[in-house]
Amino acid sequence: MKQILSIAAALMLAACGKADAPAAAPAVPNEATVRVIAGGEIIGLTTAAGAHSWRALPFAAPPVGDLRWRAPRAPQGWQGRRDATAFSARCAQMSNGLNASEGLEPGLFIGAEDCLTLDIYAPPDARTSAQGKKLPVMVWIHGGSNVWGRSSSYDGSKLALKENVIIVPVQYRLGPFGWFANAAMRDSAETPEDAAANFALLDLMASLRWVRENIEAFGGDPANITIFGESAGGHNVVGLLASPLAEGLFDRAIIQSGSFDSVPLAEAEFSGAPQSNPSAVVAARLGATDAAGLRGVSTEALLGAYSENGRGRLALPAMIEDGVTLPSYPLRDAFGVAGAFHAVPIITGTNRDEMKFFHIANPTLTKKILGVFLAPRDKDFYNAVSEYLSRIWGIRSVDQPAALMAAAGHEDVYAYRFDWDEGGRLLFTDTSQLLGASHAMEIPFVFNRFILFGKLDKILFNKKTVETREELAIRMGAYWAAFARDGAPGNGPGLAQWPRWSTDGGSVMRFDSTNDGGVGVMQGVATFDALTADIKADLRLSPDERCKIVEAVRFWLDGLATAIGEDVGCAASPS
Fold it and tell me: What global pTM score does this model have?
């Protein structure tokens, strides 16, 4: 994960330079979008795709000043009509290469702490369609390693219109503003929730309460809410599933390339690696150790204290076992205990080539041709190391947690793998090879909106694949929406049945274009034993390359790397 910002910059280079900032069309309020909600009257707009949309609706008071590192408080209402046609400021973060399309250089402090808002996308007839039935609601939690991203990047218009659902992208506190374990904050708590460390989870819960209270005004069903998120957003979905405070706030959950990992409170506060946010160390660095002093530190100074390796690299937060928002034991373990997680219908899945997203900028794996175009140094090794690390991600995010939930008596779990790898090529840069079905690649298909990597998208999503891409996007959106409607993802017109995951045979829905087999069910339960055997027998690899893969595994999971290394004949690296 640490390489994500460098990777983003490399993707821009592969796209032959910085993308121009897109010209924003003027927002025109539409009287047909006037609604009255708890805070007052609002007016939205009609998007280019034809959906009704409302932007920057506050679901909590600004978490600034004395409210920094406290549970979110209720937002204030307003007098008169509120214009909801402009997006909110993103939550405070540092820019990276993916901000190039906005004309921003990497390493800048951008956004604001006053950012707790959500956007809504709905069919124009949402309040009168389907014989008066209220529409399913899908609350989207964006990714970005929990240090980067914004709700406005996810236009839910097409998914809302095609599937007759309400899409709600939300924002939440990022980086040290969202994850901060500190005794001074616990001692100054005014409510039990103020003593938390995962403030971003509390933000997401506040957004869900707002949706329950207000979504009916937009045609949505407050009794039918699905949370879905990708990468860090998927990790946050997992956190909500395990949080006792989130009871009754949602009815279904989709985890896209998520994680079930967490760190102990003491590690997060005192002894953790930078990505674990050892807040006591940072507080000392800032010269502010009491609550008032820490809350008085500027946004920029706090972000700077958490940056690593210079500007543009922000230490990544971890989910913290704080005993408030989450149990005081490992997050993963909660899913093996009945009653320790919310037993709602769940989809969890990963992408076949997850790790290619993180490997593309690794100079030991790729090279630049003519100073710009990226290509693998050794295709076989590049594919092998990406494959095995991606399979580990799948085991830890799909097979293992699904097995834990089954053992706890929860069988309403569905699994998928995303395999689309038909990206285009420009001279020496072949995105089907470099990225394949990489991390985040499924997002454009879920939203049927092929915007992902800025200018690189012109290469990645070229004209040759428009028809098959559109077909797959429609299928994926239909499955996601069917799940949101009643918890059964295969219950829709023209959809093949999607069996529940089982310890007997696995049952994983594979999503790919018709060029590569289309959509269908794969059987089999992935295990670390099978993965180790495959590494050992892989004819693409020399003994030295097998050991290099073991060391790549060690970066993520030391214990697993040691076990694999012993089996394939690699001595453990000196500690």
Answer: 0.94
